[in-house]
What we know:
Layout: H1 21-27, H2 29-39, H3 43-54, H4 68-77, H5 83-86, H6 91-100, E1 108-111, H7 125-131, E2 136-140, E3 144-148, H8 152-166, H9 170-182, H10 186-204, H11 211-225, E4 228-235, E5 238-246, E6 249-257, H12 261-270, E7 281-288, E8 293-299
Parallel strand pairs: 6-7
Antiparallel strand pairs: 1-3, 2-3, 4-5, 5-6, 7-8
Helix pairs in contact: 8-11, 9-10, 10-11
Amino acid sequence: MNDLKELTLKDEFNEFLGYTEEEIAKYFKPYIEEAEERLKLSEEEFWEKIRGWYNGYSWNGRTRVYNPFSILNFFDNFSFRNYWYESGSPSFLINYIEKEGLEELSEFRVDKVLLSANEIENSLLPVFLWQGGYLTITGIDEDTVTFDFPNYEVKTSFSKFLVNEYTEGFVTFRDSLRECFTEDDWQGMIDEVNRVIGSMAYHLLKKFDREQYWHILLYIIFKSAFEEVTAEELTSRGRSDLVIRHKDKVLVVEIKLDRPAKEALEQIKERGYSEKYEHAILMGLSIDSKKRKITEWVAE
């Protein structure tokens, strides 16, 4: 019998495969109280943090549930960390991405008809990532489904997985990048990033002459090393390419392809990308599409 009924998008099953917030509050109350005490968090701070880490899975773009595996591990360890990544990632994901290339990293939009592709290996990248649990549905209209990463844990897992695949000594790379950032060793940081770009760009980018692709690649690299990295952060006069926060430091980055780094730095100033921060370091990067690396940077 091969006539199966598709339940994925049916409303009555939206909460079937995860914990709702109400369920966590009701059934895990003693653990929540212990977590707040151990981590020195108020009730409001606890919920804000746990939502950001483990909530966000949805099959209708409205109702959201928590990842049960991560929630159970969190309450077992009382530590906000990446349990998804520790559980392992399939090698077929790398093979697929190498074949298709990365063109977007957020708000993937797909025709609803394409969700039911019979052969997953022939699916579009967003559908493939959705089937693999990396993306969730954030919106549905009559013809289109919008996907995005459900939470911080999964987005960080995706970045770490890709960088680790192409970087020999990932932990050393991560620690070195953080050390350079802390010590304002910007040349050292750029050297480390270029080393990883050299091993990743060929496999993950199908076109080297589109600035958008380089934005995605640099986001993945920095996200694998730092907890707080934002792409296209909205300001009153546009969107900054990258904002990296680590400890008490904020770095606002603008990227230009085959154009001077100084032009990127001037754009940060002219459009006030750093105005919301009391103290921020501004950095313009220039990428050479032929050399496939950062060839110039300027910071102040």
